[in-house]
Amino acid sequence: MPPTSESTSRTAPRLFGTDGIRQVVGKEMTPVFVAEVGSAVSTYLQGEGEVLVARDFRTSSEAVARLLTGALLMNGVSVREMGVMPTPCLQFNIRALGASMGLTVTASHNPTEFNGIKFTGREGIELPRTAEEAIEQTLYKHDFVRASWDHVGSSHVDPDGIDRYVGSILQHTDVPAIRLAKPVVVLDPGNGTSALTSPNLLRELGCQLITLNANPDGHFPGRPSEPNEENLWALRKAVVGFGAALGVAHDGDADRVAFVDEKGAFLPGDVAMGLLAKTRLAERKGGVVVTSVTSSTLIEDVVKGGGGELVITRSGSLPVARGILEHQAIIGGEENGGYYWPEHQVARDGPMSSAKMVELLVHSGRPLSELVAELPRYHLSKTKVPLRPLLRDRVLARVHADLAAEANRLVSVDGHKAYYDDGWLLVRPSGTEPICRIFAEGHTPERARELMERGVRLVKEEVDHLSSELTAIY
Ligand code: MG
Description:
Number of domains: 3
Number of helices: 15
Radius of gyration: 23 Å
Number of strands: 20
CATH architecture of the largest domain: 3-Layer(aba) Sandwich
Bound molecules: magnesium ion
């Protein structure tokens, strides 16, 4: 629910999920609420500076972007209207232009009735939680800073945002080698914003390009926005049918990428990350690689084999970005297909990742399936179980005690990750939902499943035990 002035509680309800605000349009996301978000952002910026506003193709995105823009201007903040572009393209422009902040109107891969607002700070990475809390608090209290009639902001349309961004990707990729090899690539933007950047980018790189679902459309008629194996069946067929070297797909706002090899096989996000990191470590002769706790042992193996150093962070795009900055990493990424290229920008970047994958293939001169076959193979199982926030800490304490007693090694950066001889188990409560996520990896699918079930049992037993204790007390 949007905050209202009648509320008397001192604590603002949490509006921000892991990726900004996401709501159903016409229900929670009303015109009044959007204007209030614009006012709260202006208040956070103390009515100063320039904000970049961009959007995706969702049916409601233009309306939301205009409402945000109007509220910012009225509250004294200037706006550069960037138009439709992928999230990483906006993030790149914030740093390139020295803006105060960036707002993207997008709900990424959520269903069509949703829309959302992503907030990016001046470094081109997501706002820290403290800034989100300040904005939530202002929204809740309706405590907005207003500008007088002679201090309203000014706005102008910037038509060069996409060219600026694509130019940086081309500058950081070996274009002559790709132009010589002319690889056949099939691209599936899934009717999302990468339809505006990636066909042009891949052609400029020198690929022979075939596209699917490259007509921007807020109804997402081609496929669901999440680029997983099941949703990419048409891309997998097209790659084989056209004899392409590579298939590339993005989620709705293109901060993530998924790849398909020349045989039509989908590459899990860890496998693509392993290959990209292995290549980069070889090129740079070592360096720091940043990934999060949910990543496969494959990444550890690759980093060890390449003489690099691995830094493991909490799960989420912000912790990984912070880790990259802090350790001056050469690459970062997570199993969801969000990869970072620090020489270009420290943000998840789908189009940049596609350019680096094409470069890798051309430099190797070998089929993608062969390169993948050289990587160690592990199997992942994941699920979630209900976990009320009230029980969270006590359940985690018990999980810690049990896992510490049986595992070879325990990493507690984000939940608890227990390492065994033939796999690992991660028990990680969600920060935004009343659930606990269980990830397990094994040398065989059976072992992965067994470890996952061990995690589910541990959490459920403790939840039952604590629930009966609470029932007895009350
Ligand atoms: Mg996304």
